[in-house]
Amino acid sequence: MMQDDEFLSRATELLRVIKTIKPSEYWESPLPCPPDESVVQVCDLYFEATRLQREVLISSLSEEISAILGFFATRMAMLSVRQRSPSALWHGLVARIIQLDWPWTDPRDGAIPGLVLIYHSAMKLGIDPDDLFASAGEVAIRQLTKDIVYPPRVHATEDNLLEAIWWDETDGPAGLVYHRKGRPIPAGHLTLQRKVG
Predict the structure, then answer these.
(1) How open is the CA angle 117-121-123, to the nearest 5 degrees?
(2) In whole angstroms, what separates CA 91 from the centre of its chain?
């Protein structure tokens, strides 16, 4: 278990870095990008924290950080399929839970579509969504968040999951892209990342 001083120091530093990220620019960035790693670290910190430590972290969130968490969750839903990475999907779901745990988040504002995208990606990866959402739901501190996350609020067949939430999927040059119907796809989501080394 992490000591409170160490937790506070790490949380403060990570949130300081994330506050420098512009949400709209981050959303449009190629997958993956360096800011993704900062959010991954926040998710890991949240998962390892005590309930009181999670409450402290939640109290430090802002509207901009909440937006970044939501964007990250959708980005990881895409990246997890592209890279066949259950870890990326897990981090996306934890980020969505952190966002929902923030008391000023309206769960009707994008929460359900965001969870459906994660659910859809889990099925594409052959992961049991019920197990994934049950494990992640244990991280939540608000009862409302727990109620939204588990059992997954998905009452549609695999064929029309995205149709039900007005999202679509495309097989782009870089792999799977989720995008809102009628909206342009950010160029970064279509960009092939060069491998380093």
Answers:
(1) 120
(2) 6
Provide the token pair at 128.
């049991």
Question: Ramachandran region of residue 28, left (φ > 0), alpha (ψ -120 to 50) or beta?
Answer: alpha
Length of the chain: 197
The type of residue at 188 is: G
CB 72 within 8 A of CB 118: no
Residue whose token pair is 């001083």: 5
Q: 95-153, pLDDT tens digit by residue?
A: 999 999 998 877 656 677 888 899 999 999 999 988 999 988 889 999 888 888 876 65
Helices 111-125, 129-137: crossing angle, 10 deg rounding: 130
Entry pTM = 0.92
Question: Dihedrals φ, ψ of 140, to 5°?
Answer: -65, 145
